[in-house]
Protein: GP-PDE domain-containing protein
Amino acid sequence: MVMNRILKKAASMLLAGACLFTLHAPGASAAEQPQPEWTQYSLIAHAMGGIDGVDYTNSLEAFKENYAKGQRVFEADFSLTEDGQLAARHDWLPYLAAKFQQDIPEEKLDAPLTMAEFKSYPILRKYTPLSMEDVAYLLKLYPDVYLVTDTKETDPKIVQQQFTLIRDAVNKVDPKIVDRIVPELYSPSMIAQVRSIIPFPNYIYSLYLSELEPEEITEYVKTHGIRVVAMPTERATPEFIAALKEAGAVAYVHSLNEPNEVKDYLDMGVNGVYTDFLTYSDIGLAPAPTASSEPGEVRQASYTATAAAAASAAQEPLEEEEAVDGNVLDTFIEMISEIFVPVESSDLQP
Structure:
């Protein structure tokens, strides 16, 4: 009888394991899988969110300011530096240096900087540029934050280099943070390639570089277990959003900064939006769920779609156990400052 109980117990465990494998296997349809925990959040702070009316900074200060406003999912742009590292930078074109008031020598414009050079130019002369490793430390310090990566490249060689660097940064800082990194991937082939480099539990099928038709995308989502799709607003239609939902995926659109437009897309059925400047109170939603005491764990919290509730909640300070340790944050900022060494113009010659 004891043996029978043991066998029954083992059979039950094997059955449960088989069910779990089926649920999370890459080939399982999205409709059979639960939605990722991070999709509780309706807002994604684009390029770390805007600061002082400026977008695309991808800076430490933008992250801190928008975290304080209730954002918990942050998108960051990443570009390769001249010396093969990964910088939180949208691109290396001259317009961005002008926008950020960075006096980069003309011969260095329109080409990647080295990481040391990149770090030597404060954004708008006061905001701190970040490397991928810096962002990984932020994820470690803020256990309720998710990072969406926008690496922009589809060339397999560049993709391999970028995601190997992301993997190395994660392994160096804390392997657990991989559960809170959500890469934007731009094609079926890229999804397969990145899965072979890092088995991310979460990712977004991003359509802004895709020429596939909605029917093709929906079929791929259905047959490959895709659970989140992001797209420019012009690709979002009620029919497409409904078809994705039927296939088991939720949709995010980018980028919106007008509350009424956000409401229109939420009414259409999208799960959320990328934004530079909007907060939860701006769109009449309660602030996002707060952090638990353990990394990667997020308490469930329902949204209250009233501006009054949002405003009330926004005035409440974080509970003591949820607040980020100021000393730890100061230490991090000091660490950033130590590597933020000005480079003389003469040193920037090729």
Observations:
- The chain has one domain: 30-348.
- The radius of gyration is 21 Å.
